[in-house]
Amino acid sequence: MKGLLEMAVVAVLGCGLIGIAVMLTILPAMELLGVIRRIARGDYRPVILTGRSSFLREATNNLRLIAEMLARQKLLLAEEEFSLSMILESMTEGVVITGSDLKIRLVNKATAGMFNLMGVTEGLLLQEVFMSHELLGVAQRAVGTGEVQQGELTFGIPGRGERSHLVVTAVALKAPATELPNGLLLVLYDVTRLRELESVRREFVANVTHEFRTPLSVINGYLETLGEKGVSREMQRKSIAIMQRHGDRLNRLIDDLLTISRMEERGLRLETAPTDIGGLLREVIQQMESQIAESDTQVTLEIPEALPHVDVERYRIEQAFSNLLANALRHGAPIGGEITITAMREGPDISVRFRDNGPGIPLQDQPHLFERFYRVGGDRARQTGGTGLGLSIVKNIVMAHGGRVTLESSPGEGSTFSIFLPLISLHA
Ligand SMILES: Nc1ncnc2c1ncn2[C@@H]1O[C@H](COP(=O)(O)OP(=O)(O)O)[C@@H](O)[C@H]1O
Ligand SMILES: [Mg+2]
Predict the structure, then answer these.
(1) What is residue 82's predicted lDDT score, i.e. its pLDDT?
(2) How are beta strands 298-302 and 338-346 bridged, if at all?
């Protein structure tokens, strides 16, 4: 019996000791294990342990430090990733990153826009997505040589019409202390606008050269004739008259070119003042009286009593009006024809119309008529002595005033050129 009691006491004591041991060591250890698992899963919330065991306290403290450090690193990494993707997505240049096997890892928004890409591109090969020999060539050279490579690609996107020009720069990406590149960075820069401007400039220079060549070669030809012996008085008089006419044409060409270059100046500020459009039109007609009389044309001016003044640069608008009247006389109204000029208020604008009863302008020429040097009938129209710049000057002047110019014409029924000038100008 006694023995049994002793055994029971020992058992109770034993259980108690085990209980204390469990309380002091196993429970905190299990709690610690739970926290370690949580951290391993990437959950770095602050570590709080309830166990009081001193031998676990140090481990707990270290664990807290580790968790805090990891949390900070995670935040930093997320911030870095965020700003990197923000930069890539807001760039106007295209960016493509691939592995050294040319499998795509990243394509930014600008690239997708340039190539009209839809759907997932990550994981596909460069040539599968871009289908450009030039692009692939540049990429392969960069990976092969490890050096920066550059090229230009021209391509058209179905349904978009125009062709795009891109300059592509390829840089092999190499981690420090590695021999071979382990990735590739492609930067795509859209130079379409630049190339278009270059071709406009080339065309302009070619046109100007052509326009100068004709009168100069005529003048040279007659100078040679005059240098010969025995040229009659009559021939001399005729030659000088022709040279004068071509000299005048060169002068007009230079004047028009200067006007165009001044109107195209960046940030050109017009010196405007409230102007009586009716008065200005009367002046223009007066200045061209002799040309009007020469072509035996009837010019009628129709202006309402009270036409509000418009804020314009007088000299420029006068130039636009006289260009349109000169055209109506030269290309429009036939001998004995009629030209009607009307000015009136139309909504927010003052409209000024020049209507003639001439041959009109073929439909296929109408969209190009305001382009520099464009003439109906090509070289034949050049014989009229114009520079081919008149309408492009009119358009420039009117647009600088915040207005617009339109054309209505059907072949055989004359033409009407209309200028609209806003009453409340926004150009200043
Ligand atoms: N009123 C008009 N009627 C018929 N054709 C016109 C008229 N105005 C202009 N054009 C055509 O538009 C072309 C361009 O005009 P413009 O730029 O003023 O050049 P230019 O008068 O020096 O030839 C003219 O060459 C002519 O073919
Ligand atoms: Mg003209």
Answers:
(1) 78
(2) parallel
